[in-house]
Amino acid sequence: MRVLISGVGVGGPVLAYWLREHGAEVTLVERASTPRTGGQAVDIRGAALTVADRMGVLEQARAVRTTMRGMSMVDGDGNETMRSTEETVSGGRFDSPDIEILRDDLTAIVTAATDAEYLYGDSIAAIDQDEHGVDVTFESGARGRYDYVVGADGLHSNVRDLVFGPEHQFLHHLGTYVSIYTAPNFLGLDHWQVWHHEGEAGFGLFSDRDTDVMRVNLGFEAGPIDYDPRDTEGNKRLVEEHCSSLRWETPRLIEAMWKADDFYFDAMAQVKMDSWSRGRVTLVGDAGYCASPLSGQGTSLAMVGAYVLAEELGRKLAGAFERYEERMRPFVARNQALALENPGQGASPETVRQAAESIVI
Ligand SMILES: Cc1cc2nc3c(=O)[nH]c(=O)nc-3n(C[C@H](O)[C@H](O)[C@H](O)COP(=O)(O)OP(=O)(O)OC[C@H]3O[C@@H](n4cnc5c(N)ncnc54)[C@H](O)[C@@H]3O)c2cc1C
Q: Where in this chain does the record put each FAD-binding domain (predicted)?
């Protein structure tokens, strides 16, 4: 079985790992020229902890978890209004088995665990499938024929665009936009988070493992905006426009944003599709069922989806994609619902735990 996966994020390498375990020959193609860095912390919870354990990477992931000590909420002048050493907004309660980990650390771990062919700096330009296989043309001009093609290429999936059509049919905006980047740690944060929200804008500041830097999450609420996720300069302008009303250290955060070379910006959105599969092509993770960072479950959905898909393909029986969808749909629906629960504060830890464990693998 020859499988081509588009996207080396979280779902792509996890899928490749499990397909290799089931004896497949796997190629991954990633548009970025090197493994992508940036992003904040993501969470491995519930069934995704089982996937990491079965891959033999659980302890490795635990070893580089963010180990936050707590968080403060501050008012517009930076005065602390609330403090907790029991939980953080991003990672939940410290007394849970969940692992909060920087996205790039997790991508590095699952990629290193996976012995497959990695093609960086390329992308799929055309997909042409028949009853027996899929012909793929890459932007580089290379061609290949595969038994299956999987889009694990995130919220703005290229495979979804090519096979199912433009994204506006599937993306449901949640009315929030967020930028994420690295800045000098001028607040001296040490395994600590600082959160602030005023009017329609806010920020979250996180110390990094490297205490010289902090990861900044600067965002705002707005109706639908016409933006190009790849237009870094234009998106920095948007963030400045919408966030400069914030006070305290915001001017320094905005100055650091203009200097940041790892700037990431996107809308909080969910992907909803009637089917994730067409013929020999299917989708995994954010590409097919993004739950948005507001759910805290995007990474776990991608890991579990990848595991289930590989298991079903590994059975080498007809109907693998149908069984993948059947097993995943209730789990996806429950976890997508978390993003809409209790707006502004998030779902309760117990609700998140139940959703994260609501699939048998
Ligand atoms: C840079 C970045 C930062 C993020 N930061 C956060 C965060 O702070 N908090 C959070 O909760 N979630 C964040 N996310 C989303 C989070 O990683 C996902 O929700 C989750 O891990 C599911 O992973 P995935 O593998 O489905 O998609 P992703 O992790 O988004 O990976 C998709 C991969 O596909 C690649 N790709 C895109 N287009 C193409 C193409 N045409 N051809 C080939 N490859 C392509 C992308 O470069 C990326 O490497 C971030 C995503 C990215 C890309």
A: 2-331
pTM score of the predicted model: 0.93
Which tens digit of pLDDT belongs to each residue from 313-361? 999 889 999 999 999 999 999 999 999 886 666 778 889 999 999 999 9
Question: Distance (Å, rounded) from C-alpha 185 to C-alpha 69?
Answer: 16
Residue 46 near residue 353 (C-beta atoms within 8 A): yes
In CATH terms, is domain 2-68+101-170+272-356 a member of 3.50.50.60? yes
Assess whether the C-beta atom of 121 lies below 6 angstroms from ligand 1: no
The structural domains of the chain, with segments of one domain joined by +, span 2-68+101-170+272-356, 174-266
How many Cβ atoms sit within 10 Å of the Cβ of residue 21? 15
Residue 342, pLDDT score? 64
Ligand 1 pocket residue status of 29, Cβ below 6 Å: yes
φ, ψ (nearest 5 deg) of residue 71: -150, 160
Indicate the DSSP class of residue 329.
Answer: H
Which residue, 220, 167, 164, 210, is CA-closest to 190? 210
Quickly tell me which residue has 């996205």 as its tokens: 103
Rounded Cα gap, residues 217 and 232, in angstroms = 15
Task: Give the architecture-level CATH label for domain 174-266.
Answer: 2-Layer Sandwich (3.30)
User: Measuring from atom 13 of ligand 1, which residue has the nearest CA?
Assistant: 39
Is the beta carbon of 306 within 6 A of some atom in ligand 1?
Answer: no
Cβ atoms within 10 A of the Cβ of 236, count? 18
For strands 264-271 and 171-184, give the pairing: antiparallel
CA quadruple 115, 62, 178, 342: dihedral positive or negative?
positive
Does the CB atom of residue 38 touch ligand 1 within 6 A? yes
Torsion of CA 88, 191, 268, 219, to 10 degrees: 110
178 beta partners: 219, 266
